[in-house]
Amino acid sequence: MSTPKTGTRPQRLEEILQLLLDDEKSSAQSLAARFDVSVMTIHRDLDELQRRGMVRKFHGGVSVARTGNHEIAASLRRNIATENKQRLAQCAAGLLTPGQSLFLDDSTTVAFMAPAVAGIDGLGISTNYLPLLNTLAEAGAAEVRAIGGTYDHSHESFLGLAAVRAVQELRVDMAFVSTSTADADGFYHQEEAIVELKMAMLRSARRRVLLMDSSKLGQSSMHRLGGWDKVDDLITDALAPADFLGQLKTLGVRVHVAPDAMEGITE
Description:
three-stranded antiparallel beta sheet, 37% helix, alpha/beta, 267 residues, globular, Arc Repressor Mutant, subunit A, Rossmann fold, 2 domains, 11 helices
């Protein structure tokens, strides 16, 4: 592991999150030694991250909070469990046929669909995720539509009322979305603005596909996107509980298990 930066406080907060994503948990003493700052300084940093809902402090340590009020920045999520994300994305791309129109949301899991979808003839792709827009354009995708709105630096995407209205004006064949958590009652996300846009995409698509790995199942976050009647397909990995998948099948959800997927995807 590379030596953490010791620059500005925002840099240190980002580095702390990255370390916790890599190591699962740590302690104030260990983090203070890594960053060459006082334990008191680290406690203030952890208090701030906990206030944002990004970490969970407990007796003797700290870990990432995956069900809090704020999602981890896209710049961090993008580099987590990339092989897993590729497997789920490849499975999702296998549902496409040439000439279809589709939404791709701003999740870093769905973004891994870019190489595959760029090679399918005649697709019309709409997304609010800036890195995905650039990747698709550079890869020569047939038609790429930007969903504009208020730019959110943390998510690297366009959100807000203008973005929701832009989605509502479209009607596409398929929507591919990922989110933070799910349980038997539905699927969830930490942030209201993200929920509004994902819901708009699902409502404006004829076929709705949700990508989620098994580590997200059995949990909930603050905002509910909807029940399982709001999606047609779930793409997950082989570690997803069989009884949970069985429940979804009885509700009419088509379940696709990506081969050789591993644990630990962050949306």
